[in-house]
Fold this protein.
Amino acid sequence: FVDELEAGPPHHPRKFEDFKQILEESRRHPKQDYFILKSIIVNNLYGVDIMEEAVEICKLRLFLKLVAQVDSQDRIEPLPDIDFNIRTGNTLVGYANYTEVEQAVRSKLDFENAMERIEDKAKTLDASVRRFKEEQTMPNGCVTSEDKRELRKCFTDLESELNDFLAADHAVKKADMAEWRRSHKPFHWFGDFHNIMQGGGFDIIIGNPPYVEYAKVSSEYRLRDLATLSCGNLYAFVVERSFALLARQGRFGMILPLSGFCTARMLPMWSTRIKGRTSWVSNYGWRPAKLFQDVNLRLSIFLASFGSREGTHTTRFLKWITDYRPFLFATLAYYTQGGDGNSPGIVNKLSSPVARSVFDKVTRAKSSLGALAARRGPEVFYKNTGVNHWITATTFPPKAFRGTRESASSRQTTFTVRDSMARAVAVCTVNSSLFYWFYTVRTNCRDLNPSDLATFPIPASLAADPELGDLAVELMESLDANSRFIVRNQKLTGEIRLQSFVPGASKHVIDRIDALLARHYGFTAPELDFVINYDIKYRLDADADEE
């Protein structure tokens, strides 16, 4: 590739001229790897974080990476100054682009040509930044403290001008400006990275945003004019801001909570991110191994790029053992999703054509578990949080003891149905591998909400199948016989013993239930095999109450 660049096509003698010049400079440098990394850090890497400590740690790690390329003390050269690349500020507070600044200025009746003044300051800043970077990457270049003071003054002048307009938008009084700047830490992408934003935005944006409910920080700083405000979490806001900063042909990648792809309140975020782009969503559990050590969260990695047509590709809900971690990403398998107009904001974690076929047959069912509900009648008991490998529902409350005294378990939720036949249908369906699989496809894979039960589609014929009654009795007896007691110690109440189920020991009954369900849904033999053996590697011998 390099040789082709140097030769150059005859009809484009100056094609890639700037790149060829950089290649020549790298050859002349005594340590080529150092030169290349330094050039990338100075000219291509940018970052923003609200925590000053995080910014300093980031810069330190980049410096250490550079120093690691030097194999002798006499070859060490001054480290680059990247204070204007890696910045402290609030990603969400400030003007992102020219349009936002212009709207703010024009709304105040620009009699003093403020917009023209801002544009002049931005152009002056661009020229200063360009010279500052060139001095750091050109041979024998030198950046003086005076150069840095002048550049910092250019940044400060533009920032102050923009802060005045932003503070006015937030109805901040002049006497409160200092406190407002301290609490909000405004960061103006338009000014701080003006050349990039005027060029269309960033080519690549990656990150791991904060997973913090907005209500927890709203007393510190207020946000406005975000389409995702109703999502209520900072990570949704960061996604929206990122796409406002991304170049049209740019690429995006962030690590987000898995719940961001399966809850209705996140629909505004989903609408923001998929428009005109191709998306890839890989989904990760946290048992038996975690994506990040000490992070007990189910996560998704969301990637997006501009494509010729919109489309979403997802993985299944992934589980793995620690030893498999080096191969996890190399073996990701994405499946192209079809439409699911009945569930806006939900990205189904489907993984194959057979999974799609099973999903379609289930969702075509005309009735639902909710149709069996009643205000009075038999109860179905289930645990509504901490789902991992199994979902267990029983016709009896799990036993609990405080010391020697039997007590009710506080972890159980009930679902009331109209009669004993409806209860048999409910417990058989909820304990089935089919329900567990459908649950992992549609939800956050942690909380079993009443709506997850009520909306699960079932064929109308299921409620009249007498075989379910016998299977329900057999399953309840098996679950009870194979259960064990786990001990929890609480400060206020002391030792508590709770009945814990081991559904894997009842898998032979559950398989027969799934076979019966398959007849009603019309599954083929391969589809039934897929359901019965789904996640079997991790489900066998796992407690239902392991979390």
